Amino acid sequence: MENFKVHILGCGSALPTMKHASSSQVVELRDKLFMIDCGEGTQMQLRRYRIHFSRIQAVFLSHLHGDHCFGIPGMISTFGMTGRTAPLHIYAPASYEPILQQTLHFFCQSLEFKVEYHPLDTTKQAVIFEDRSLTVETIPLQHRVDCCGFLFREKPTKPHIRRDMIDFYDIPISQINNIKAGADWEMPDGEIIPNRKLTYAPDPIRSYAYCSDTRFIPQLHEIVTDVNTLYHESTYTEEHANRAKIYWHSTAKQAATVANEANVGKLLLGHYSARYDSEEAILKEAREVFPESYLTNEGDCFDI
């Protein structure tokens, strides 16, 4: 099965601490890298955890709060100094375009690669990226500014060839692609060997949902139903539910409620308030609702 992982670069919230970096993750699928959010210092985290700059194809920004986007100027500048030539695609709320263009004009005039900007409508669920192996959809969220999450969904793969049966029936290598596409095999005497005897089921489709800063949305589980892994911000415990309401964030219990109702495989917690010296209370609260809950920490890598 091909790689499908998420690397945690930062899982803190807006107030900087010595313990956690600002929000950023890298999704790895089949040797392609996609960044989600880019808080201040993200490029240092890439260095620290030895994630190759050159392999990042696109950056998806959930919203325009500094702890999710202040790392963009420095990272683009560094890409220029390291000789990047491949385009860098940035997907962000529509209001980011003038900020990005001013940044590029002022700091990054001699880039040898293009920065392609893609404005997002954060109010709609829509496919915003697609290639041969995956799609990326927006997930409308509710925060103090325009905000959306992202749903990475692997595309179906072809069935696996049963090499023993290919050899048994002496099927030419030139016919492998046809058989993967569903074709039967006709023997010289006219006997038809059905495709089901020549192949076995493809790998199951995997999916990862990233729900950045948001207040609790009772209907959110409908969008992320059955995803393998859900990241949902869990800034506070229920003890500080009033602050979550004021600042349009979620508690660990609310994040776990979404995971439970969506029947996800596992829940990743993050975006911790700086008021907590330890996140164990956050984890405990989430696991009381959804046992397959896990804390994220810088340097963690989770298999999807």
Description:
It is a single chain. By secondary structure, the chain is of the alpha/beta class. The protein has 2 domains: 4-157 and 203-303, Ribonuclease Z/Hydroxyacylglutathione hydrolase-like (Metallo-beta-lactamase, Chain A, 4-Layer Sandwich); 160-200, no CATH class. The protein has 10 helices and 18 strands. The strands form 4 sheets. It has a 7-stranded mixed sheet. A 7-stranded mixed sheet has the order 7-8-9-14-15-16-17, with helices on one face. A hairpin with a 5-residue loop joins strand 11 (185-186) and strand 12 (192-193). Helix 9 packs parallel to helix 10. It is globular and about 75 Å long. The N and C termini lie close together (11 Å). The mean pLDDT is 95.
Helix share, percent:
10-25%
Corresponding CATH superfamily of the largest domain: Ribonuclease Z/Hydroxyacylglutathione hydrolase-like
Given the structure, what is the number of helices? 10
Q: How would you name the oligomeric state of the polypeptide chains in this document?
A: single chain
Low-confidence regions: none
Count of β-strands: 18
* Distance linking N and C termini: 11 Å
What is the N-to-C order of secondary-structure elements (H for helix, E for strand)?
EEEHEHHEHEEEEEHHEEHEEEHHEHEE
CATH level 1 name of the largest domain = Alpha Beta
Strand content: 25-35%
How would you classify the helix and strand content by structural class? alpha/beta
How many domains would you count in the coordinates? 2
Instruction: Give the overall shape.
Output: globular
CATH topology of the largest domain: Metallo-beta-lactamase, Chain A
C-alpha Rg (nearest Å):
22 Å
- Order the strands across the largest sheet as they lie in space: 6-5-4-3-2-1-18
Largest sheet: 7 strands, mixed
Report the mean per-residue pLDDT as an integer: 95
CATH architecture descriptor of the largest domain: 4-Layer Sandwich
